[in-house]
Amino acid sequence: MTHEAAGVPTTRNDEDRQDDVQQNEAEPDAPEPAGPEDAGPEDAEPRPEARLARAVQVAEQALIEFEIAVETFRVEVENFSRLHHQKLGPMYARLDELDALIAEARAAKTGDPEDERKAREARAVVMPMPGVDELFHDWMDTDGLSPEAAAMLTEQPVRPPKRVRPSEEARRLYRELARKAHPDLAQDEVERQRRDEFIARVNAAYGRGDVELLKELVAEWEAGPVQPPAPLSESEELYARLEWLSRRKELLTVLAKELEDGAIGSMLRMAPDDPDQLLEDIAEQLLGEVSRREAELAEMTR
User: Fold this and answer.
1) Pairwise CA distance, residues 299 & 291, whole Å
2) Nearest Cα to 67, choosing from 239, 155, 195, 158?
3) What does the pLDDT look like over 117-159, one tens digit per residue?
4) Which of 149, 183, 207, 226 could in theory staple to 139 by disulfide, Cβ–Cβ 3.0 to 4.6 A?
């Protein structure tokens, strides 16, 4: 039997080769891997302006968070100062009065000119001649009349802060409003002015720890106009924005340093977790001092 008879040809004739060529030409070629020039828009590198815009957005949010922290601490310093004066002022005045009485009793007993001089100095501390600063103390602030002074002049009830640190609910509402309505998010001067005025009301309510008013302000802001997202700025404007944010942060850093290094800020650092208790502790110490000096005066005047 030959190979041909078995059906297994040992070679291929020209007709078979021609059929294979026609079949290969009819079948489409397999797709080649896409090159960089075939990449779609979603795979393209972001524009430099887009990356810069993202950097501006991140810087804005970081600055807002920093301002929230500084304003929170400023409110605590201011409230601590007012409550310190309100709660402990009478005790300090009593101590000054007792010091003067003790010095006067000692001078009357000894007749020593030096003791008499000390007695006069102690009495001068109790009854100083008021100056301009003392006359207007707590009446003026950076915005003009303080809220307490304005309320007194208009015969409205004065609403002092209840605590050094506003409640957790007040702090939560304040942060929510500050993040949404912060003036640094404004894209034009008109919007900035609107936000400035609104945030001033938010700060005043937060300073008093007025939770109900803060809730009303949240509802007011949510009902207000929604600003459309800002269009992509050109790189020069974005760089200028970054520079402004940097300068603003520098100013806030200076303010934060002044608050921390001040007398009240230093006292607050002694009890960062419970500043209200710190006032109570100081009051207890002062009451002890008052008792000791009253006993000393009673002993001298027997």
Assistant:
1) 12
2) 195
3) 998 998 888 865 444 444 344 444 444 545 554 554 444 444 6
4) 149
From CA 165, how far away is CA 275, in angstroms rounded? 7
Residues above pLDDT 90, as percent of the chain: 9
Q: Which of helix, strand or coil describes residue 145?
A: strand
Residue 140, SS3 per DSSP: strand
**Residue that is written with structure tokens 């809220």 in the block:** 147
pTM: 0.52
Read off the DSSP letter of residue 185: G
Contact 141, 123 (CB under 8 A): no
Q: Is the pLDDT of residue 261 over 60?
A: yes
Question: Angle at the Cα of 91 (from 277 to 283), degrees rounded to 5?
Answer: 15
Distance CA 151, CA 139 (A): 11
Residue 229 has a CB neighbour count (10 Å cut-off) of 7
